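hiii so my PI (J.) wants the whole complex modelled not just the main chain, which honestly fair. so below is everything: two entries, each one labled with what it is. i double checked the lines twice but i was tired so who knows lol
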Amino acid sequence: MNTPSERGRGLVRHAAALAARPFLSVSNPVQAAGLPMLPKSGPSPYQHLVGTRRCVSPKTQVNPKDACPLLLNLDPRYYQIAALALLLLFGLLRLRFDIQLPQALLILGTVIVAQFVCTRIWKLEKFDPRSALISGLSLCLLARTNSLLLAVITGAVTILSKFVLRWRGKHIFNPTNVGIVLMILLTGGSVWVSPGQWGDFAFFAFLVICLGGLVVNRAGRADVTLAFLGAWTVLLFGRSFWLGEPTTIPLHRLQNGALLIFAFFMISDPRTTPNSRAGRILFAVLIAVGGAFVQFKLFRTNGLLWSLAALSLLVPVIDLVLPGEKYHWQRTAPKLAMTETKVRKGIAYEPA
Amino acid sequence: MNLLRKKNSTPHNHVRLKLPRFIQDTAPSKIRTWFLDLLWILLVGAWRFISPAAIILTVLTSLLFSSNSAKAFCGFYVAKADTKLFNKASQVVLVRHDDKTVLTMANDYQGDPKEFAIVIPVPTFLEREQIHVGDKALIDHLDAYSAPRLVEYFDPDPCAERELSRLRYALAGAHEAKMSDKAGTESSLGVKIEAEYTVGEYDIVILSAEQSSGLEIWLTENGYKIPPGASSVLGSYIKQNMRFFVAKVNLSEKARLGFSYLRPIQVAYESPKFMLPIRLGMVNANGSQELFVYALSQKGRVETINYRTVKLPTGMDLPLYVKNVFGDFYRAMFDRQVAKEDMRVVFQEYAWDMGWCDPCAADPLSNEELRKLGVFWLEESGSPAPPRPLRRPIPGGPQNVFITRLHVRYDAAHFPEDLVFQETGDRSNFQGRYVLRHPWPGTADCAAATQYREQLKTRQRHEAETLASLTGWELEDIRQKMGAEGGSQVNGGSKWYERIWR
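here's the output for the full assembly
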């Protein structure tokens, strides 16, 4: 099981064995399929995929019976990449998005190359294109332009923002968000976002895919997504109630694929949200309020994107007031209750 | 599952992928693993959800991705399908730039002018000078210019192609001459009355209100028929600080002016709101309504942001007999597309730089006409109307005006909220254009001709199928009509295909 592709195929076989579980009478389908069991201790054969994340606290001894299904152990970014790619394919084939396949591939190529170059320039330990790919896929889903050159620049700006716009070891803005907002501002509208492109078609399928992301990322930062969706729903329904509008109006506004992308893949980015849970919830509510202000008071489109870009500047302040532990993709996510205890004791905050 | 097992049983070296050089060179094993894993995830996901046919289709469409750009479309324009085909159709021209909007509203009201009245929520107060009564001919021209169109091509002689191309040029000249001739001939209730004007044949009142019940009573007392249920809709506009533009016909003015129909009303205002209030009109509407929006903008295409904007199917080859029933075809196709999208989308029928067209269903509008429609950014000293159809942009013609024609069929169940628009930076041209290809009428018997006739059969079969799928018409009927109409055009009237289909 040492060569990389064997390990890759191992994953597929493992997943297939788990999927077949209801149809098999053997007690452990993984074992029955002749695959190595997850060891009680020591490195997992799927280490490269799993990192050191486990479903249980790292201090607890892992019992094979309690070992959670592989998907839950996966780095959440794999799920995000698969989900975004699926949404993109669906958008291209069924919803006839205003982006062509070559442009999408160009954007994806650009972000990976940009990530590689930046890794070299900033002399990072290793090149990891996963986050870049998520940013690239989000760009393909949201940003629209007629010019291939602008598409490339958008991709490059998005990745560069991660390396350039930093504060105390964290990048300040969600890369996709700042990439799009900067390009809209700089090009005077030659790059735009089409929030209407999703319609309300297949909305619930989108929702399921996005919720799946929460399950995979359950130890991660679902709080910011849920807090935002809650606040946004309250604002939309509240406004319609005040205006005496029928509930079909706020429901129609909620049934939007762009909103899901924003809530599940953009503001949930753990690297650009506040470190503490209280801070994240505050952040999410502020974004919803800001988005509603732009949309319903200023009557501008893409209120949430502007709101997120502007309020990201507040994150360092929120981190100062409500400190918490910095997030690392590859590390076991700290148990939140523990984090909060640490916050109360004031020991979790380490300025980088 | 089968697929996965099969792949798994393949020896490792058979599935080895050639990785990009930079990936091979850097941190070898981890990245390669990552790359392969990602490919697996994408492939498996794609295989599960997308049929191979759809993948092939995407590849093909992406290869042809530049087909909508500003290339010259050849072929001769033969017919257009204008808005008169639809009953209960409203037409609206939205001129928009920098938060300034000029709205022109025309409707096909046919009843007694005494009974005519409209109530339109507007974002701001309107001065007398901000209201104008426009010319219906301008909207008709805009309609004709942007309507879906039929073009025809003539197959070349497969034995001697050169000769036919000469013929084609000759025909093109004749056609353009004809078009230019045509162009020459054409030319305590809490209600506050903020202002009252008489503009043209209309008496106009600008109202603001504190509550919907007061407004409703005022309107009823003043002879406006307000449908039950309008109150809550009026209420939501009142709370958004919108004013109400209320107009009815001043019969004596109308008699003095001598117009037999009601002219479109135009209002100009400055507000960040780029929307059309459609909710009030849906309160007591029976069935769906038809709306055409002609958006004139500076930067590029206009689209709705709270509903999907979908391009009308275009560029298909159709059977020749469609030339005689193009109106029916357009209506049937639109009905079918609306049903296919569950009546939840706005259709884009035309998007083009106003400086030209190709093929032209009507001449582009002149600077003068555009200014009358409210295009305020054009300079005063504009050039006169282009004398003939323009196939390429010319300096001095109307510039910086991009037209988007949107067509929406709506009702309250499918369109709960007002239409909100945005201007995009997209200047790529789009038109609803359908193609008729006349078969080569020759009888020569060279090898190329035999091959051509074989291909023709396939082509005509495809044309019939395309028409059936676009309109929902019966394939059998289509074939029969093709047989009846096309008889004299193929093989000099030998009617070879009648033996196939009858």
